[in-house]
Specification:
Blueprint: E1 6-13, H1 31-39, E2 40-42, E3 46-47, H2 53-62, H3 66-69, H4 86-92, E4 96-101, E5 116-119, H5 138-141, H6 143-152, H7 181-195, E6 202-211, H8 219-226, H9 260-290, E7 297-303, H10 322-325, E8 329-332, H11 335-338, E9 343-344, E10 349-350, H12 354-361, E11 384-388, E12 397-401, E13 405-410, E14 416-420, H13 438-451
Parallel strand pairs: 1-6, 1-7, 2-9, 3-10, 4-5, 4-6
Antiparallel strand pairs: 2-8, 7-8, 11-12, 12-13, 13-14
Helix pairs in contact: 7-9, 8-9
Length: 488
């Protein structure tokens, strides 16, 4: 047995932090994730600091804040030039590193320090449009699509059912279940365990696209939820239901459906994808047991961001609300690595903490330029700065979140929101004008002005926030190579 633990990092796409049985959700069934929570540590105060796929994954892979990673919004086709990455550091330390599933980097075959990658990014628009470089075409560069074509003998796609990759429409997977991309990622992870070098510890990243749309789990998972009463989406005194009419009705829409039955179908499809995913995680777990690896493997489970799921009339991500930024985070494994199992941590956790936590588990040096903290140590963070450029209705936002509350500032309009998450976890009441909350909101506002001091966009002079400065998805440092650890 290796003295250093094997590390399995399970990453999902667009999974809400409340959508697990162990998080107290009344509807979603996640038996394997609940078992992991019993074996390890649950972090109920975990957040994505820039809640969409590209910037969130930059934070995950580099251990940097969005500001330092240079990605503060969603923008494809910007080269990833990071010289210090989580997988790269583990590879340098003698780990056999492998990713199966989603990377969402550019170029798409960039390894980000992994020894090997079996790629499935889901449906990415930039890889489908006319004029894209042939090597970036998804039918060529994406291993899952290449495999699916060979399995079926014809070119098949995840949109063959008519469900778009950013839609709230849901319907079951039209092909055999083993051909589903969720099954494919689990199968590739299991195959890696079979053919790994047993003399080395491994770092395996199982990176699932679901429960990100399309909501297309196999039909049996839809059946689990069709006959059940489901919790209705959250509503607040600040909602803008009229915005549902200002964007497309189903294709790539940031706003949710109006029809209650379509909302219910959306929930069924989303929850079905989560339970399907949970069962595939169970397959990987069983494979660890069969290979005799369970007692020397630490498992981390996290998502890149959440999903609004028609809460407050919104869908998808990129927004500063709990459905979008609150993420699941579990760490499970042998007690000598994670401490007492079955506990809940009070740490204010972020995606940038995953890299230093993983490196610490591996006994590897943690580069001093990282912004994250080791979550199994003694994390000190008391507030977290997050942001996302979002041009629809000028909703680009900056936020400060703590264990108890949240302050939001919309940079283009100056609108502010304050939510007491202890008494109002559903963010139903904007208390920014409440006399009882005025002092607390002012404190969080000052934290934001501090966090944005010297920002490239000019959002703050260090003491006050400046409205109307043009946002940009990528800062100038996004295109510069990060400092390699040997040069620190």
């Amino acid at each position: 047995m290796n003295e250093r633990p094997n590390i399995l990092l399970i990453v999902t796409d667009e999974m809400r932090g409340d959508c697990m049985g162990n998080a107290g959700h009344p509807d979603v069934k996640t038996p394997y994730l609940d078992s992991l929570a019993q074996m390890g540590v649950r972090f109920p105060h975990a957040y994505s600091p820039c809640p969409s796929c590209v910037p969130a994954r930059a934070v995950l892979h580099t251990g940097l804040s969005p500001r330092h990673a240079g990605r503060v919004g969603y923008q494809d086709c910007v080269p990833w030039n990071y010289g210090c990455t989580m997988a790269g550091e583990l590879t340098r330390q003698g780990y056999q590193t492998h990713c199966a599933g989603k990377m969402h980097v550019y170029p798409s075959r960039s390894s980000m320090g992994f020894c090997s990658v079996e790629l499935h990014d889901g449906y990415l628009h930039y890889g489908r449009f006319p004029g894209v470089d042939y090597s970036e075409n998804q039918q060529v560069s994406d291993d899952y699509f290449y495999w699916l074509k060979n399995e079926k003998g014809i070119a098949c796609d995840v949109t063959d059912s008519g469900v778009e990759c950013n839609s709230w429409i849901a319907r079951p997977w039209p092909y055999e279940e083993p051909l589903h991309p969720t099954n494919w990622v689990a199968s590739r992870c299991i195959d890696f365990l079979r053919r790994r070098d047993p003399r080395k510890p491994f770092f395996l990243m199982a990176s699932f696209v679901r429960p990100h749309a399309p909501y297309d789990a196999p039909a049996c998972y839809f059946d689990l939820y069709r006959g059940r009463p489901l919790r209705k989406p959250l509503e607040g005194d600040w909602d803008r239901p009229d915005w549902r009419h200002t964007f497309g009705p189903a294709y790539n829409s940031p706003t949710g459906p109006e029809d209650p039955e379509l909302i219910r179908q959306q929930q069924i499809g989303y929850y079905a994808c989560i339970t399907h995913l949970d069962h595939q995680i169970g397959r990987i777990w069983m494979s660890l047991v069969e290979h005799g690896l369970r007692d020397n493997t630490v498992i981390l489970f996290v998502s890149d961001h959440g999903e609004m799921l028609s809460d407050h009339c919104w869908c998808h991500k990129s927004l500063p609300y709990q459905g979008s930024i609150h993420i699941p985070l579990l760490i499970a494994g042998p007690q000598q690595y994670i401490g007492r199992p079955g506990r809940t941590s009070d740490a204010l956790a972020s995606l940038q903490d995953i890299m230093p936590t993983v490196l610490s588990l591996a006994g590897a040096p943690v580069p001093p330029h990282l912004d994250g903290e080791n979550l199994l140590g003694a994390p000190q963070r008391t507030w977290l700065h997050g942001e996302h450029v979002f041009r629809f209705q000028n909703r680009s936002s900056q936020f400060i979140v703590t264990r108890r509350d949240k302050y939001i500032w919309f940079s283009q309009t100056g609108e502010e929101q304050y939510f007491d998450l202890e008494t109002d976890p559903g963010e139903t009441c904007n208390a920014i004008d409440s006399p009882a909350c005025r002092q607390r909101a002012a404190l969080l506002r000052s934290h934001l002005a501090e966090a944005l001091a010297g920002s490239e966009e000019g959002y703050s002079d260090g003491s006050r926030l400046i409205v109307g400065r043009p946002p940009q998805e990528c800062l100038s440092n996004a295109t510069l190579p990060n400092v390699p650890p040997e040069n620190l």
